[in-house]
Amino acid sequence: MAQANPTQALANIYRTPELWEKIVFTALCLLIYRVGSFVAVPGVNVQAMLDFFQSQQGGGLLGLYDLFVGGNLSRSTVFALGIMPYISASIFAQIAGAVIPQIEKLQKDEEGRKKVTQWTRYATVALALVQAWGYALFTESVQGAVAEGGFGFRLQMAIFLTTGAVFVMWLGEQITERGLGNGASLMIFFSIVERFFPAMWATLQLVATQGINILSLLVLIAVMAGVVAGVVVITIAARRIAIQIPQRAMGRGRMREASKNFIPLRINAAGVMPIIFAQSLIIVPGALATFSGSERLRDFADYFQPGTWLYFVLSAVLIIVFTYFYTAIVFNPVDLAENLKKQGGFIPGVKPGAKTAEYIDHVVSRITFPGAIFLTIIALLPIWIADFVNVTFNFGGTSLLIVVGVALDTLAQMNQHLLLRKYDSFMKKGRVRFRGSSMTT
After folding, report:
1. Each residue of 408-417: pLDDT tens digit?
2. Sign of the CA dihedral with 233 first, then 236, 241, and 243 last
3. Among candidate residues 116, 118, 125, the one with its CA nearest the CA of residue 98
4. ∠372-286-390 over CA atoms, to 5°?
5. What are the structural domains of the chain?
6. Predicted TM-score of the model (pTM)
7. What is the Cβ-side half-sphere exposure of residue 403, based on CA atoms within 13 angstroms?
8. Max CA pair span of the chain
9. 383-421: per-residue pLDDT in tens?
């Protein structure tokens, strides 16, 4: 089938009212989110915070967090916490559902899911309060960032940032319900993408001032293209397990030949979460040293700085461990085997039930390892490139995994709307033939 050109694709989107309304609504919500990124919290010297983050060169958990919130953290805006408290609360709910049977039972019915969602919102407010108070303490520790600190400033900061986090959570839920795709993911996607262009301009300025040579720039572009291609491939890559589901013939009691299908098992089922978990743990010594001011802790934290051999080894081990851990949380072979058995389906050569669950678990364990190795390379690649071309590399790693994953999911949802539109049109205008006769629908 010939692929439609971009102009035709845009025309099809515009001619689909439901899809167009979702896109416009999503764009308006993201615009509101962007406007809030220019409203700074009172009592903070924004330039002092920007200078501090620039001196850190985006390293550590603060740099990663600032990337996910579109620079709001470094600018000390009312949206400094962004959607991250809600994402953290959602992750805790997922983990709780995997280890606590009562919560897992609630997540399997509509009313139970509503209750878990409400608990997630309460947890978001609690996390936002704690993070906002911690950010206030951190702001006071930055030289020249706060004129008058103390309890009043911390309380004010906590109120502003918590309110901003709750409002961002509400925006994300509105995008999920009335917009296009998962609201939280789209907001992180938007936050990352808006920082790509300034980073590209800064790289070009370095070339103009001979900060980096043309050869290094060409290597940077080649690596960036390779990383994008690799992320796309690994994001959509899946191991297909063949299954057969018997079908009952219409109007007869006997069974027809089983239809052949497959179960796609994603190689990177854990997504970007293992990298986030690993980096969150490995920067703990540095964070403790920063907040405590202890010289001994600072000397100890130096061993875990990006670029050291200990940093590379620990990062690789933690990413691989968390890849298996998070895959076990989001993917349950037992439930999959039970659902397949209820439909009368089976994997050729494998007994239904427990044996099927064991077989699927074995396959998932094998394909998770190359996915974990890929995540490790993607996480460490920016540091290697920065050392090679002597410039901070902002186009790879964690950010690209999120951008590509969200972009593919959003395009898939748009295609579903377009296909549904074509299907409705076919049902209204098409004809269905039965053994020589025809019936207009």
Report:
1. 778 877 777 7
2. negative
3. 116
4. 70
5. 1-194 (1.10.3370.10), 202-420 (1.10.3370.10)
6. 0.76
7. 20
8. 87
9. 677 666 666 555 556 677 778 778 877 887 777 777 776
